[in-house]
């Protein structure tokens, strides 16, 4: 039952990220909310998800384990750049003795089909249990804004 809940949580995370992102890159709406003006879209609503350790790299947790985290920032620019920041706390029994930095990539997908947005991820876990996951995509090809030369 516990592994089933973990799998469902991971699927919910990927679905939530994918559903929100498919409309964001149209530059007119983001998650059904119209984008006003030509500037960056900033999602100000927090969201809580159980993110899989395969993104976080906490040594004392299995890759299928997850950590409950809150999305604190989501910014998408008209040029196609995007940044998402998640923060949470690692369970006390899994906290590292020293700071752990884990780099990986995350590909947005829905129902096992890639929608093409690939994020570079950096997860920083502190000995006090605080963990920050930052996802960035600097690919300006998908954006419809002005491109620098």
What's this model, at a glance?
This protein is an alpha+beta fold. It has helices at residues 2-24, 53-56; strands at residues 29-30, 33-34, 41-42, 47-52, 66-76, 82-89, 100-110, 113-125, 130-137.
Tags for this model:
single chain; 42% strand; two-stranded antiparallel ribbon; 149 residues
Question: Unreliable segments (pLDDT under 50, ≥5 consecutive)?
Answer: 18-32
Biggest sheet character: 7 strands, antiparallel
Fraction of helical residues: 10-25%
What number is the mean pLDDT?
A: 76
Report the count of strand segments: 9
**Count of runs of 4 or more consecutive helical residues:** 2
Structural class: alpha+beta
- Gross morphology is elongated
How far do the termini sit from each other?
54 Å
Determine the strand fraction and express it as a percent band: 35-45%
SSE ordering: HEEEEHEEEEE
Rg from Cα: 16 Å
Write a structural description.
The protein has helices at 2-24, 53-56; strands at residues 29-30, 33-34, 41-42, 47-52, 66-76, 82-89, 100-110, 113-125, 130-137. The protein is elongated. The chain has 149 residues and is of the alpha+beta class.
Question: How would the blueprint of this fold be written?
Answer:
Blueprint: H1 2-24, E1 29-30, E2 33-34, E3 41-42, E4 47-52, H2 53-56, E5 66-76, E6 82-89, E7 100-110, E8 113-125, E9 130-137
